[in-house]
Amino acid sequence: MANQFDVIVLGGGPAGYECAIRAAQLGLATAVVEREKLGGVCVNIGCIPTKALLHSAYIAHLLSVAAEFGVEAGPVKTDYGVAMKRSRKVADQNSRGVEFLMKKHKIAVFKGTGILQPGRKVKVGSDLLEAKKAVVIATGSRVKGIPQIGLEINKTTVISSDEALLLEQAPASLAIIGAGAVGMEFADIFNAFGVPVTLIEALPRILPLEDADASAELAKSYKKRGITVIAGAKVTKATVAKDTVMLDVEVGGAKQQVETAAVLMAAGRGVNTENIGLKECGIQLSDRGFIKVDRALQTTAAGYYAIGDVAGPPMLAHKGSREGVVVAELIAGQKPHPIKYDNVPSVTYCHPEVASIGLTEDQCKDQKLDYVVGKFPYSASGRARGTGETEGFVKILREKKYGEILGAHIVGSQASEVIHELAVARENEYTVEEVELAIHAHPTMSEAVVEAALDSLGRVMNI
Amino acid sequence: MATKVVMEALSPTMEEGRLVKWTKAVGEAVKSGETLAEVETDKAVMELVARGDGQLLQQVVSEGATVPVGNVVAYIGAAGESVDAAPVAAPVKAAAETAVSPQPSAVSVAVQPVSASTATAPPDATRVKASPLARRIARDQGVDLKLVLGSGPGGRVVRKDLDGVAAPRTAVAAAVPRPPSPVPSLLVADSGAPFEDVPLTQIRKTIAKRLATSLGPVPHFFLTSEVDMERAAEAREALNRQLGDQGQGQGKISFNDIILKAVALALTKQRACNAWWQDDHIRYWNEVHLGMAVAVEDGLITPVLRHADRRSLSDIGALARELAQRARERRLKPEEYTGATFSVSNLGMLDIEQFTAVINPPEAGIVAVGAIVPKPVVQDGQVTVRRRVRLTMSCDHRVIDGATGATFLKTLKQMLENPLAMLL
């Protein structure tokens, strides 16, 4: 039968398509069902196009300081529309890349909305697909907005990242609600494109999931650049007019109003679990709305697995991809190594970048761990001075007795790259001493990792 | 291509053979299975047979020469075929040869995993894979990583495998000994498979390797003697009463302690049994270091009571309990389970009346202790009920001959039946 496969993956995002590739590598006949473009949110309206826009922002920043470096660039003009079109090209290239990968691995791609049916079946339009081994649900998540306070996404004055990524021109002014990774990155982008940005966060500090030191460093940096940061703020009311939005904001009892041309909702992501036939197949949701899975990522219905954002936090592409690979291997009868959910790096690509892994200092305190902080500021790094990017630091939380790396937090240029040696170290249970013993090239941003490790041992060299 | 004929291991212990006589001349046709030469092994003169068809192209060694197992002695091939002059000197790994099938020794069979198709060396059972963090914790807490089941990639010991064995990460909480999970914590839950392949733990590998070098290569023989324990029991009760009076009730003397002490003393009297087989010599020990087999989760280990002969009964008892406890918690240091000169294994508590134990090389003997059970025996022409124990000694015949072992066992029996003899 043409429509019979070993594995059917519902959703062609980074979790789904990597699951399909791994399944195909293991000799399983595999199909992917995708209602939009292959690559999902990540490739089309998430990770990839925002990185393209952030680089545009970075270039604008570099040009603004170019004269200091002896490069006269003349007055800098930015055009968001051009940057947007370039980012679309990058996203499309990546999506086509995924399409190519599907062909290369002989994975059947069904375009359309897949509806799960009992008996490991998926209905796509008039096609009925059947999986002999397993159905993998990787339907991802989307921006939801906060309709309770009148901030329903209307795609003109109240937008989500989906619309922000397609704007022909930058708004006159922008209020961003939510200072997590998405909010921080768009604040960075629009600030560089000359838009007055107000960043509003409900929790007491921006980047609330990161180490408090990282939040403070970014708050300082953003303020210096003219981004208005309001943390610990509650939006009590939103009045949406044709061209403006008036936000009533309450901070520590004091009320203030923010008038803005547009509001970008960067808080409240919801998983895509509606109308895909979960209930009919006996697939239950958790209290928080994710699909309930066991340790092997199997749902409450045998033969149905869930991976990526729908399967629970952290809602990160790389976490979903790993789940996809692991599930494919499980379905193929292999015994993959368990996923270490406490060792998933988290990166915010604003400038300076923020990257972290493991516990924050507050979490160490909460868990009553006996820890030592090792910290090295980039202001003392020769490489950072050379590029003029001296903001930020490397902070390592070392378990006092055995030197285990409990957590690592990097703020600074290239933080997204530098974090991975600490990911490798933690994955293999290297202690700060093994990290320090590895000779690091000079001068590099990564040297700060060694210095932070040394600092945690009480013998920092270059400060 | 010409095929090499190598000196085969014609007996389990054979390491070299003397080529007594060629029975095929160069140029003569040979068939697989035909005798090529007579070889004198460590036991007898045996036949070296062809493992392929063709012509005997070359005799590499002359009659009378002694050749290590694995070395080339001749070439077989098609008539007129040239012998690619492979140098003879270096011993060739027998398993790597195509047309030759030497009996693999029990050792390599036991330690080699399923895929024994290549000539790679058997994995070293003593090498421990562990993360730097696990090593650090183990070193600090005195945990022997060899005894810990690793759940990391390739059986690597990681921090969580030490949970319960070593103190947990928080410096605050106290360490509660908990046996580690016997099965690696794999992601697969309730696969419903008909079987599960569980990777060998370090301790299991070590047991396999150590014991396969024992019963196979070591020529065992066994001696059993039934010992009357009535007087030992009386002595024990009296001693424990006295200890109780002194307020030392916790460290009561057990039958096992008495047997350990008696074995140690008997060894001082029968030094011939307190010895190590060292391949080209025998080491007779003047010190008595008594190994004591202890069952631990997924294996056994033999902690050593150093200078057992010089220790008091209560000292032996206390040390034996402490070592056994730490063995079960996997906290023995390597020097605490190596270097025994003789061993004792006791399965009496499991109601085993009599069994034979496998010698722990290079030791030359081990005594297996059964359960102490009341039995009807004839004494002074009367049938009476006495508490009896059966002791079975396994001896390495290379070190201990029948009469030597029997004399030792008799000495031991006398000491147990008349505990006062221990004072002599």
Provide a descriptive summary of the structure in words:
The complex is a heterodimer of chains A (463) and B (424). In chain A, strands 1, 2, 3, 4, 5, 6 and 17 form a 7-stranded mixed beta sheet that branches. Chain A has a 5-stranded parallel beta sheet with strand order 8-15-9-10-11. Chain A has a 5-stranded antiparallel beta sheet with strand order 18-19-22-21-20, sandwiched between helices. Chain A has 13 helices and 22 strands. With 463 residues, chain A is α/β, with parallel strands linked by helices. Chain A folds into 3 domains: 211 residues, FAD/NAD(P)-binding domain; 121 residues, FAD/NAD(P)-binding domain; 105 residues, FAD/NAD-linked reductase, C-terminal dimerisation domain (Enolase-like, domain 1, 2-Layer Sandwich). The longest helix of chain A has 25 residues. The termini of chain A are far apart. Chain B is of the alpha+beta class and 424 residues long. Chain B has 3 domains: 101 residues, Beta Barrel (OB fold (Dihydrolipoamide Acetyltransferase, E2P)), CATH 2.40.50.100; 69 residues, no CATH class; 210 residues, 2-Layer Sandwich (Chloramphenicol Acetyltransferase), CATH 3.30.559. Helix content of chain B is 21%, strand content 23%. Chain B is built from 7 helices and 19 strands. In chain B, strands 9, 12, 15, 16, 17, 18 and 19 form a 7-stranded mixed beta sheet that branches. In chain B, helix 5 crosses helix 6 and helix 5 packs across helix 7. The relative contact order of chain B is 0.10. The interface between A and B is medium-sized, with 25 and 19 residues.
